[in-house]
Input
Amino acid sequence: MKAGPPFEPAHETLVLDSLDLESGVALHDVPVAFSTWGTLSPGADNAVLVCHALTGSSVVTDWWPGVVGPGLALDTDKYYIVSANVLGSPYGSASPITLNPVTGRPFGPDFPVLTVRDTVEAHRRVLDHLGVRRVIAAIGASMGGMQALEWAFQDDLVRSIVPIAVGGRHSAWCIGWSEAQRQAIFADADWQEGHYAPDRPPAKGLAAARMMAMISYRSHPEFSDRFGRSIMPPNGQREVFATESYLRHQGKKLVGRFDANCYVHLTRQMDTHDVSRGRGDYFETLGNIRQPALVVGITSDVLYPLAEQEELAKHLPNARLEVIDALSGHDSFLIERARMSEILSKWLNRIADESAAIPTATRT
Output
């Protein structure tokens, strides 16, 4: 595996010959994009896996600046940082915008239904390809947290998990938010049942979906403090509240970098999240996760309320809970980087020290 300096990521794509999905469908010629930082140790046991959220990518330094690099929380002088792009995302892995090898055309809305577990299985193949023998921690927030929890069931490889701002199963509340966003996309006349022209996507619908999502990612106190009832400078139209301007800007930004079919697919993939599906009782399933777990919650998170992280910490037998007290809601894991860095650095040092104390011959 080639790599540049530890602060410069190496970006590659692994093409899997095939991938058997939970649905029973087999995908063929499956690209999986990934990025790495740092150097894999001679024992191949210093990897840290970072799982990204809904509209993120494998380039962690783009959405978590100041967290990955020499001397930082995810210290590339010590750890081999790996992040892979989720299936269904438009940033390099198999998705609605990739070519169907059977038809030679993009999958579009015919892209098969995937689960979080399918994504984790594809990413396991990436780690195998890289020669990783031990992951110190699987870290992720939001949709990334769902992956982190699923990595707990790869206990031959993963030493600890760090689920952030997530629950053990997607709640009715979250499914409702996702469906409202999908319906906004479907209501756009340019949606065309997902068979839209590349140069005429359902931009208004996708923008509206993003605007809804941004409200759920923040909090009432933050909007009150940040925007209040302030009005934007006049531009010849009716008065526009600062909140309206902010949401429109966020919607426009996403339209410029994302695909509507991918958004629909990924929100449905998130709705499949339930660690107990097919494994038995929910709380018993959590109780069967034996690795050390650092669960991180946010006091102002209205999408994945703190009660969900408290539930995880209560029922995971080897867990501790860290709480970020911030007004920025769900997105605090992105915004409160100094606090997140402190939490992650302490955890990784602890797990690395514990792993070093275990004789190599007895490690599993």
Summary: The domain at 175-269 is CATH 1.10.1740.110 (Rna Polymerase Sigma Factor; Chain: A).
